[in-house]
Amino acid sequence: MKKLLFIFIVFSAVNFAQLIGPKIVVQQSEYDFGQVNQGEKVTHVYIITNSGGDLLKITKVNASCGCTVAKPDKDELAPGESTNLVVTFDSKGRFGKQKKLIRVESNDPNNPQVILTLKGSVKMPENENASYPVFHFSETQHDFGKVKEGKVVEYTFRFQNTGTSTLKIGDIKTSCGCTAALVSDNTLEPGQQGTLKVELDTSKRHGKLSRTVSIKSNDPNNPVTVLTVYADVQ
After folding, report:
1. Please, are residues 72 and 47 in contact by the beta-carbon 8 Å criterion?
2. Beta strands 187-188 and 167-174: pairing type?
3. Which residues of the chain have a pLDDT value below 70?
């Protein structure tokens, strides 16, 4: 009898903690904007609600691409309160199917990270007859997660020339000497694909860090592409 009572008390305590704690809820976590012309901007509003019993704090909002901007109207929500998270996608220099992820971090103990999705496709304007290259990366950010200090980690980004003329890749610069970048080819014809391998040396580094790689090209709409890598060095 005492054992059953103990289990009931523990179960009730867990349920009560969930009830009084903050709880993040998104009414619609995925939005498809359909098809837009290259150069157009798409804006969508995600509604975030605190359905818990304590103050919800939105601590961080990250987009998977520099072409996407996301910002909540409020970063602290009382129980039952909602806020708008406005997300804007700039299709300049983009072509084809697009899928962007927005990561929302909060103090919800049971769901500390919520992932929102914005997707659709970008087409060339029908009246656009100019011939030019388009330097398109399938993703521009990568998180290595937790990494032991001293380890060298690497990640390969993939890109494609989705334009109609030859793509020429120029200078590649890293924000730190601990980061190296190697491109598979400096010249790509329309439709060709390539890779860019990024290495991060965590020697004598500690804590959370981010490093960038800037790539210049002859893409007239996107002359400088910036890639970002993250790591939590232990």
Report:
1. no
2. antiparallel
3. 1-19, 125-130
Q: What CATH number does the domain containing 194 carry?
A: 2.60.40.10
Q: Of 226, 181, 234, whose CA–CA distance to 209 is shortest?
A: 234
Phi-psi map region of 80: left, alpha, beta (phi>0 left; psi -120 to 50 alpha):
left
- Do strands 82-90 and 68-72 pair parallel, antiparallel, or not at all (unpaired)? antiparallel
Would residue 57 count as lying in a domain? yes
| Model pLDDT for residues 109-163, shown as the tens digit of each residue | 999 999 999 999 988 766 555 688 989 998 889 999 999 999 999 999 999 998 8
Shared domain for 92 and 115, answered yes or no, is: yes
Determine contact, residues 192/169, Cβ cutoff 8 Å. no
Taken as a whole, the chain contains a residue count of 234
Here the tokens at position 111 are: 């769901």
**Is 128 part of a structural domain of the chain?**
no
Hey, what are 192's tokens? 């060709």
pTM of the model: 0.53
